[in-house]
Sequence to fold (122 residues):
Amino acid sequence: MAEPKAVVRRLIDEVLNGGRMEVIDEIYSAELAPAARRWIEPFRTAFPDIEMQTLELVAEGERVVGRYRCSGTQLGPWRGREPTGKRMHGIDEVYFFTVRDGRIIEAWGLEDAAKRIRQLGV
Fold:
């Protein structure tokens, strides 16, 4: 069974950066996978060149905390807004995950949404 940090690394590397949506069902619990897909798929469609850079990844038991920096170009609709073609960069994000039995069972985070909106001009 994968250690919690390895599961979160797969989320960032394979799903968000790599676009491998099928991995969602491997790393999220059955209960949380549909919600993860509803958030990740539209985000990857809007920002197909998304790059999540992992700045820090800390784990204690089942809990994993990651600090990330996000960049990408809005080439698809996002939150009801048409594509701007503008690039967001250096968007700071922090996420907390609970990983049990090799699957993410809880996730929540904070993002610098104001900076993202300013950069995209939406």
Notes: The chain has a mean pLDDT of 96.
